[in-house]
Amino acid sequence: MKSKLNTIFSAYPTAKPFIDRFGFEQSAYTLSVYYLETFRVRHSLVPSAFQCIFQYLEDPGLLKDKYGLWTLMTAVGRKSFEIYVDEMKKMPKSPERNKNLEGQCQFFMIKRTHVRAEVRDEAKLYLHSLLSKNAFPHLFCSSVVIETLMNIINILSYSLNEDNLHKVTAHHRVPDTNYTIQFVDTHEKRLELFNAFVDFGRTFIEQALMMSPTLLKSCIQQFMLKLSEGKKTSNAARQHKGLHVMWEYLSTYSKAADANSNVGGTKLHYRADFADYMVSSGERSAAVGFVEGLDRHDYRTVLADVKNEMETAVQNRSTSLDKYKLLQQRRRRMSVVAPINDKGNVLDFEERIAICKTTTKKNKKQRLYCC
Questions:
Q1: Residue 138 Cα distances to 30, 99, 184, angstroms
Q2: Which uninterrupted H or E stretch holds 95?
Q3: Most exposed of 13, 179, 299, 331 (fewest Cβ within 10 Å)?
Q4: Tens digits of residue pLDDT in 48-85
Q5: Phi, psi at 171, each rounded to 5°
Q6: Under 8 Å CB-to-CB from 58, ≥6 apart: which residues?
Q7: What is the pTM for the complete model shown?
């Protein structure tokens, strides 16, 4: 079995020293996992087929195994990934194939934020292999992948504010997926992970701009409208750090570090003014498109509706102001009348107003008599 393992993993020199020290149990276990996972990848078309390898990579027992079983599991994973890529290349281009690849790319990006550095490194390797050499160029212009990238950057930014560290939840779900991200323990590691992922995002966007800049910008703008959908304000788009990173890169104003941190003497900051400009520009463009899409009859109808709404609002405001002035007059009249009559009974509001009116009439008559 050792010779068979050495033959299978001959391309991975780090595996040979561990294989030579294996006993029967370790050799049998490694061979079983290899045959199971490679068979699963070859004959299953669902994205989760290859993802099962991460169950071994994330196993704390294998990570601590003194025989080096975890190193062999990484070799099994890389071998399985080679088979997966070959199978995807053989498949004809179709929506099912694209969906499979997009799901894998999403999974690797999320695993790239894993709390264990060993798992992050493996996910980084798989993600780089999937995106390199332009084997699957449509991934750089996929709205699913781009939105997931921006959402992950936004989620990782939640943990960077030191004032809100006690409010950070242990797990945070990535929108439009079934995956969650668990934050690492210390602020330094969170910042390091955030900056590393921002750098990956910039590399990804640079490659996407080389392939299809128009499609990339369209995906980002569509995501911005998606955030503001069904909401009266655009605060969601203005506060989304993933959008900030993309906007700043596209506008050539991006930096390489974070505003509240120092890493290598550089600082990363977000231009909120540019974000506001992009949101306002999008809102104006949407309004202009709505108006230009109206024909003459609809245009007049909309103008008439706006005019009626403005007149109604002004009328309601005027009525409300008149009521307020009348109420103030009644309160002033009531203030000159004692709240208790000469018999010691408490007077209510209307009784005091009636006394005030009677007193006012008597005063008028006396002034006329004197004249």
A1: 35, 11, 32
A2: helix 95-111
A3: 13
A4: 889 999 999 999 888 888 888 999 999 999 999 999 99
A5: -125, 140
A6: 114, 116, 119
A7: 0.67
